[in-house]
Amino acid sequence: MGNQHGQGFDHSKQSGLYIRTDKPFYFAGEEVKGNIYLNVGGGAFPSSTIYLKVKGSEKAKWTEVKTVWENVPGTNPPQRRSKQVTEHYDNENEFYQHKIPVYIFQQGMIPLGQYTFPFSFKLKENLPGSFQYQEKDLECKIRYSVKAEIDSPNKNLDKVKYKQEFLVREPIKEQINQSEGSQVLQPTSCCCIPLGTILFKFQFDKTAYQPGEIAQLQVEIDNSQSKVGIPTITGRLTNTLRIVSKQGHSKLIHRSCGTSMIPGLQAGQSALNEQRKNMTLSLVDQGRNQPLDPTTNGKVVMNNYQLSATGDLDGTCLCCTTTPGIEFPIRIVAKPIASYDQPVVAPSGWNPQVMNAVAVQFDDSYKYQPATGGVLVPAQNHNPQGYQNPNQPYYG
User: Fold this and answer.
1) Which residue has the higher pLDDT, 15 or 50?
2) Which of 56, 141, 193, 311 could share a disulfide with 324, CB 3.0–4.6 Å?
3) Which residue range or ranges hold the Arrestin C-terminal-like domain (predicted)?
4) What are 278's strand-pairing partners?
């Protein structure tokens, strides 16, 4: 059923292991459902336990070059010189690192046959969304995955396993319908002479978008009672990425992702109701020529976007006149993983025995240390199917 495997499984007789969630992405707080599929051909396999491993974490690492000053040895009076120093920062925040036995065959081996092991678990309510960003000397990511695993009886051989990543999207707590704002301006000339009154009304079509969507902006302007021209109206998409180190040091990256401009109005004119101005702004990273990274708000990695629209005013006093404009925070949701759409190829004659569903509960007794050989606290009050006496430690 699956093709990612280690030694010890006889794949020449169509043996294999596979895992699949019911959806490619979930919102924080949702229930994840899925199945582990197992096909044992060519005789029983000498291991007893089917494990589900759930991983989720946010990580960041980067370097910064700073200029520091130091005294020059042997100088009197003391002289100072500057030098470049590279400082390294990193941080990690773990959400899941659990290895849960979902079924144990009491005879100490897995009999010949085909099996499906349904599982489910509820995501934490406050999980940050999946994310990945990389540039020179900087990398940060938030990832989630499930893995089906069977330990090999021979520790010198690889485990039998299959891993699938899944996306988490942050809950959209606010309404995703239109967002709007209005302004009444009373511009003045450079001599502080009043130039009339201008009414602006800005309206964005929604506050949450898929990567690559087109944001729609409508602008109504009543400029009939002013002497000020509005040559252009500009829409902007900006991004703020913030990452935090273990020591609390923050790095901020501010970027302009894209702009769009449309003609404005002359003094004495209006564009209201059906005559309103319409603007579109493609939600892509024009500077990097790629889709936008998703919105996320973790403890280590925070990535957010703002949509704004501003109008330029001719001949006004900049110190006395507010620039017309409005800014809204928006969310970009993570794009589904393309590999999830790949078809699942089952062995010929696939007709598995479906075991009872296991509702996974996360606690410290199921945590593990990856690839360290570390021994974990054994589970004490959990009885997966066929599991009578959980007294063995778990290894990563």
Assistant:
1) 50
2) 311
3) 196-336
4) 218
Q: What is the mean pLDDT of residues 306-335?
A: 77
Pairing of strands 353-354, 113-122: parallel
Q: Are residues 325 and 344 in the same domain?
A: no
Q: Are residues 165 and 215 in the same domain?
A: no
**121, 32 Cβ separation under 8 angstroms:** yes
pTM for the predicted model, two decimal places: 0.82
Q: Can you give the residue range of the structural domain that contains 283? A: 179-332
pLDDT at res. 5 = 41
| Burial profile 88-125: b = 16 or more Cβ within 10 angstroms, e = fewer | ebbbebebbbbbbbbbbbeeeebeeebbbbbbebebee
The total number of residues written for the chain in this structure: 396
Residue 316: what pLDDT? 60
Q: What is the mean pLDDT of the chain?
A: 83
Domain match, 203 and 305 both: yes
**Do 102 and 358 meet the contact criterion of CB atoms below 8 Å apart?**
yes
Distance CA 165, CA 120 (A): 15
Whether a cis peptide bond, with omega within 30° of 0, leads into 231 is no
How do residues 144-167 score in pLDDT, each as one tens digit?
999 999 987 777 667 789 999 999
Q: What is the CA radius of gyration of the chain?
A: 29
> How far apart are the C-alpha atoms of 93 and 141, rounded to whole Å?
11
Q: Are residues 135 and 214 in the same domain?
A: no
Are 60 and 245 a contacting pair, CB within 8 Å? yes
pLDDT greater than 90 at residue 19: yes
Q: Do 125 and 254 reside in the same domain of the chain? A: no
Considering the domain boundaries, does residue 74 fall inside one?
no
Phi, psi (degrees; rounded to nearest 5) at 393: -75, 160
User: In the predicted model, what is the mean pLDDT of residues 363-390?
Assistant: 53
| Whether residues 213 and 132 fall in one domain | no
Q: How many domains, in total, are found in the chain?
A: 2
CA atoms within 13 A on the CB side of 34: 27
- In a domain, residue 387? The reply is no
Domain membership of residue 72 (yes or no) is no
DSSP-derived pairing of the beta strands 49-71 and 138-150? antiparallel
Both 205 and 160 in one domain: the answer is no
Q: Which of 43, 13, 19 is closest to 117 using CA atoms?
A: 19
